[in-house]
Amino acid sequence: MATATATTVYKGKVTHRSWPQLPPELVRTIATYYLLDVSRTSYCPQTWDSREAWHHRMVYTALRDASDLERHMMSICPQWHLALQNHLFWNQAIALIDPTDALGNHQFIAPKGSSQQSTPIKISPFQHFHNITRVSCFVCRINAPNSTLGLANAKRLSRHPYFLTIPLCREHDRRPVSYCGLCLRVAPVYEPSLVAAHLSAAAQHEHIIAIVENDDKDSFPNVEATCRACRTEWLWKRAQDTPGDREAIGGNRFEPQDWEARNAVDSYIDLAEGSIGDVLTVAREKLWLRKNTRLEFMMKMLKKTNRVDSEGLEGLERYYNENEEEEDPESDISEDDIELLQIEESHVKDMALGDWARARILDGHWISPADTWYQHIVNGYKDWVPAVHPCPWTCEPMSPVEDDGEDDEDAEVTIGEDGEKQHPLPATLRSTIPPTFALCEQAFSAHQRQLKEILVPPMKNLVRKIVIECQTPGMTSGPWRGGEDPAIRAAKMSMEDVLRELRNEEGI
Fold it and tell me: What is the 3-class SS of 346-383, one letter each residue?
């Protein structure tokens, strides 16, 4: 009789074993590589990147990785949960959160229904770590990792954007604005004697951390307070993906050229005033105004005029001397001057937008900023049409290879076959509309006013011409004859007829 030989079947395509049946050693190896990958890719606030805060960073990352391992690996199946309870990671996490082993006696429990002489049972490292973190304040343990502060002192639970739920002690639960809701860094607390002895150092340290109540609920919901480092980090994260935003806020050093943008950035970083969206909106508007309008030049002219009106020519000379001595005259602006500058700039900004709109109209680009903002274009057609010069004989013919020696984008022109410049200029077509809705609405109003100022006088002349021709018998003007009702004649004219009359008769 033939005997059946036992064959060893390994994990693979020929086996019927499932993932819960993997050996515990292999499951722990998988978790080790998972933790290595998580430690490289997970987020850690830049607050803990300094060399002095390295121990705080280790506690923060240990709590973060423990939460991630429990939520994503130990929840796969009960077998994996049981195998990962003895992973060496939990021993390291226990040593970080309880370095003095103050709660080490809680890892032994007495068996149920046993006498006093029975041997205590040692729970798994995961259970011991879970018991510690469940009753310890996360904020205290991260900010004081070398002491026992916060151990077994948690009273309430609170929400956190990265840990989901964290236990807090009574002090931090009552005063949520005393710590940063993102990195969990606490505001420095000094004794009266130390503050009196080292007042400048204490004030400087408190200014560096700058934990202030959070007003930006859109960027940081359910966060009561933020620190300076987190505000700086997240402002740069929002701006770094767009080249225009990076230039608007002055790069990673946060030094924009415009005084109002610089004031908005500094107020948000130091005092948490406004939101990230508000800061970027102001910075985008000021950058666009600086690049596309003559706002800066007009503001300088206004300052010179005010100096001359108040102090005469001597004040103008002092103005030039002050600008030569200071690299950036607007670097130090007091709070009293900010309101005055905002009032002056609001009036000058209307003039600058009107000048920008008038230049576009006179160059032949009549598309409204509102049409560009809402993308009111016809499919298959360009959003601009070539402009025809009303008096081409007044222009000198230019060669297509002619170069005036200037390396400027505004000087770039396109020469047609007849030797004339083609309008609108490429620089006008490449220019962008205002980046925000509020500024674009102001530009649209300025465009309407300038278009009215430019077209209303020749349109009045055209209407007067039509009335005179219709009232004069026997007068012939193209297809029109005298003695006709002016209203009927005007109703029969198409847009092309109106433009032709304006170009031929009024030079538009």
Answer: HHHHHHHHHHHHHHHHHCCCCCCHHHHHCCCCCCCCCC
Q: For 140-160, give one letter per residue: b (16+ CB within 10 A) or e.
A: bbbbbbeebebbebbeeebeb
- Residue 82, classed as helix, strand or coil, is helix
pLDDT, one tens digit for every residue, the chain (508 residues): 444 444 555 555 545 568 888 999 999 999 999 999 999 999 999 999 989 899 999 999 999 999 999 999 999 999 999 999 999 999 999 999 999 999 999 988 877 766 666 788 899 999 999 999 999 999 999 999 999 999 999 999 999 999 999 999 999 999 999 999 999 999 876 555 544 444 454 445 555 788 999 999 999 999 999 999 999 999 999 999 999 999 999 999 999 999 899 999 999 999 999 999 999 999 999 999 999 999 988 888 887 777 666 666 665 566 565 655 555 555 556 555 677 777 888 889 999 999 999 999 988 888 899 999 998 887 877 878 777 766 666 666 555 444 444 444 444 555 555 556 778 888 888 889 999 999 999 999 999 999 999 999 889 998 998 888 888 776 655 555 556 788 888 888 898 888 888 877 766 6
CA–CA–CA angle 175, 178, 136 (5° rounding):
75
**How, if at all, do strands 480-481 and 476-477 pair?**
antiparallel
Q: Which residues contact 142 (CB under 8 A, 6 or more apart)?
A: 56, 59, 60, 63, 184, 185
Report yes or no: 291 and 258 within 8 Å, Cβ to Cβ. no
Contact 64, 163 (CB under 8 A): yes
Q: Whole-angstrom Cα distance, residue 135 to residue 155?
A: 8
SS (H, E, C) 278-293: HHHHHHHHHHHHHHHC
DSSP 49: G
Phi first, then psi: what are they for 59, rounded to 5°? Answer: -65, -40
Instruction: Report which residue type is found at 123.
Output: I
In this structure, what are the phi and psi dihedrals at residue 229, rounded to the nearest 5 degrees? -65, -40
Q: What does the alpha-carbon distance between residue 6 and residue 110 come to, in Å, rounded to a whole number?
A: 44
Of the candidates 138, 115, 129, the residue with the CA atom closest to the CA atom of residue 87 = 129
Q: What is the pTM of this model?
A: 0.81
